[in-house]
Amino acid sequence: MKNIRERMRELDFKESFIGKVLKTYPLEKIEEKLALLTEQKNIQNPAAWLISALKCDYQGIEWGNRKEESPSRLKRNSHFGGDEKNKFLPREEAIKRIQKLKKELMAINSR
Hints:
By secondary structure, the chain is an all-alpha fold.
């Protein structure tokens, strides 16, 4: 645990944040996500990214640093009648849907 704590200090995480993360998540997962974090570029809020990576189990750089979700997982999202825990779509999918809706609205307005 000392090695992880030191790595998190080097990344300028506050001691209170480090303590909460170490109490909440398995050491193996924290190490895995810290390794991913150090590979990332342009992370504006490393603490928020780390928490999100731990909660969502980021696996790599796909889908904005998140493992691509399978269609079966998407169907479980609340947007598809699934549970409330997984109510958000991946960013890229949300953007595609917004763009599609925008085109449809523009077509309706031009009639």
